[in-house]
Amino acid sequence: MVDDVKAKDKEVIKRLEGLGTGIFEQIEKGKEPAIELPVRNLGNIFFDKKSKTIKLGDKTSQRQFLNIAHTRKFMQTALVASEIKKIINQDATTSIRDLYYALKHTIADTNENTFEEQGESDPLIEDIEAGLDLLREELHLAASSKGVIVGDMKIKDGKDTIDLTKMGSGGWGIPSNVEPERIQIKDLSADYVLFIEKDAVWKRFNEDIFWKKNKCIIITGRGQPSRAERRFVQRLNKEFDLPVLALMDADPWGMYIYSVIKQGSISLSYSEEKLATPDTKYIGLTVKDVETFKIPKEVTIKLNQLDVKRLNEMKNYEWFKTKEWQNEFALMKEKAIKLELEALSKKGIRFITETYLPEKMKSKDFLP
Amino acid sequence: MASDDFFDSKQEMPVLPAKDSIAKIEEAKAPAKEAEAKAPAKAEKKTLKEKEDDNGYPALTAEELAKEFKEHSVAEFFKKNRQMLGLTGKIRTLTTIVHEYVSNSLDACEESGILPEIEVKITELGEEYYEIMVKDNGPGLTKETLGKALGQLLAGTKFHRMMQMRGQQGIGAAGCTMLSLITTGKQIQVISGTAKHTPFMAEMTIDPKKNEPKIIKIEEIKKEFLGLAIKAKFKDVKYQKSEQSPLEYLRRTAIANPHAKIIFTDPFGEKSVFERTSKTIPQRPVEVKPHPKGVTVDELLTMAKATQARKISSFLKSDFDRMGDKAIEEIEKQASFDLNKDPKKMSWEEAEEIIKCFKTMNFIAPSTEGLSPIGEERITASLKGIVEPEFLSVLTRKPTVYKGGFSFQVEAAIAYGGNAGKSSGEKDENTGQEIKRVEVMRFANRVPLLFDAGGCALSKAVQGLDWKRYAIKNLDNAPLTVFVHMLSVHIPYTGAGKQAVSDEEEVMEELRLALMQAARQIMRHIAGKRRQQEKEQKKKLFMKYATEVAIALHELTGKKKDEIEKKLHAIVLKKLKLEEKMEKDLEQKTDEEIAAELEKEAAKEKKQSKKKKPKAGGEEDSE
Asked: From CA B177, how far away is CA B231, in angstroms rounded?
């Protein structure tokens, strides 16, 4: 396995050097240097019906050194590429924040920094990943992760083996690199994975030992999940054939997070095949639940302008163009309400774990 | 000769003891009360009301007016009409006094073909008590002309002349003598030297009852001197450093009279010298015959009484501009009376009839000859010398006519950057430079207008221009000095204070065109400057990033950093040179294109400032 890694590193370095050589050759010829990169926005992604994930299209754009609007980014892209090469050569793995600080310095004779904030370097890493067709892990970079998970299984992380039934109230913190070379999943005994949007709700499920009673794995990404949580869920789904169910707020944001788990996100569209879990289903909450479970009106929230705008956008996303989702959006717009997971506590603290979830599981009233 | 020892101050003495002076004023008040009591006299006057002219002024002839002066105390008239005489307000009064003396000096010098050098000194003697000294190098006064010039009100010939003149603001130099007397009880001192006579020194005042000069002392002096120097004291006036101070008046006078050198010493002893920037004396404006469309009933009667002609028909033909035989025939047809009548016997009603005729008839527009603009070259020189702007745009329009009867001409200049504009006292947070505000200088017949800006056509024209179209985002906070000059045989002042021009349609249009043309030059300058700045910023930007790119490429490829940097620099310079060439083509662009470009740029700037911090690439991945 070590040899595989070495070979991969060599390949990655070759591609990074290739990027540099491409620019250098343009300069040698006296041409205005430019880097060609895939366009990573809504205009250049498509929903691949075969893999059922979002994929990057083949539109590219030129990042030109002599264009006022591009020049800073051009300089930064070159710096990011050179720094990644250094990191790999040192056989280290760093966080993207480390990378930002490593590259941040004052440009000679100015009071300007190469980077002012991490928000400037992060998208350039994604540019390089997409442009050189590499995964972040292959670049020896780790994104911070924040998700936690418990359930009946064991994890082998290097020399350590961790029993995920004995994680107390906090759960196991998912590391940023969950690739099989690093993390192995063993002795799994569960029927499905429950992906919970919010940490507080996840804690309720953990405290009530829901996972044990219902033979499932419970995981949260604490809001918008990062790649590690999504990659881990994909592995559970692919390696153990576990269905994934998502429990989200009934609002445009919760529903969008669901779609990211299922099909992937726009900005990471170039590696969604390794991150998305198309088998995911939406268990709740839905606007219909308000009626079905007789949830009092006063705990619902009125939709605001921004919600409506987002709803209208999402309605047009290819992957939401199913009858069920279009109906759900229409109903939400009609009722003009949204509902948070925590609102179910109005019906009793354990209503969500003891009534809502079991009944939903029984009725199989899921959204695709 | 230093002005300080010019007059021997020991020689002065009051004309009247202070007590007498008070008595005098009491006495002067009496006739007014009497007049009020005389109700029948008032009723009698009402019949005169029928004779009101178009402007609603009581239609008194100049003669009648003069008679009234004599009947009442002149001092009384003075006090009653301070506003009309430009003597309201303590600050304004002081500036008006300076104006009267200085414009007299300028006129006298020009008439004699002398390049004026005028020295003004104001000394504070006590609370609201000042002494003003004005000295010129003009032709001077003789012992014979002295009294009439400085000791008799309305003695001048300046009224009702169809000629571009500086004009009095109401009182003239004799009025100042009067004002000095009634506020301080003191005489004025004069030193005069003419080319032919031995210089003399005089102390004089005015007899307010008789409106006659009163020479107290006159003696020849041994000093060699050519010109006129006057020293007078005034109370109830105030010197204040402001935009309406004598200093600002003189600064602007110097701008509009580039052939004059003006030296001013303020009450704090601070001396300002405005150097001459032109050595040519302006061409004297020519007196023109009045145009029939620009004359009032009263003026017509006054002219009729003074004419040499024996018949009204020949009077009209000889004394008016553009009056041909056909016009006379037309009037003959319309008039109810015989035009062979002696013009001196013309009645008010008959004069009115003639004016009515004039209004219905078509005349060729008046000749625009005889106007004497300052000229673009001279305005440029004086603004460069006195305002010291970074860029200057000057325009003299062709003369034209308003109301069909009066010729006029407009000059406009816009000074940008450098020392242009007035100080705000605030500093820019970013650059540390002082923030400038717009300064609008109005002039009528070379005289600065410092008061009543609000209602003035000249200010309205400046405020009314769409400055945004000319790359000036906010006029109030722009580093601009806007110069607007209207010259005419008859300036249409809004009021007796003669500080604001009324907004005649044709005048407004000329002002607008002049300002637009001048502003266009400013816009081009700003656009060019901005391009230059942008280019330099761009170069700096590319050069500094080139170093970073070279470091990164060195890491990635192992090639030498310095070589990469050198080559990158060459590419940057090549690119910028190419752009420069394209800019040269841009200079062929029309104003509209440049304006559109500036607008686009402004919109872009706005957008950028609105834009928040650079967004993280992914809209949803917060990792």
From this structure: 10
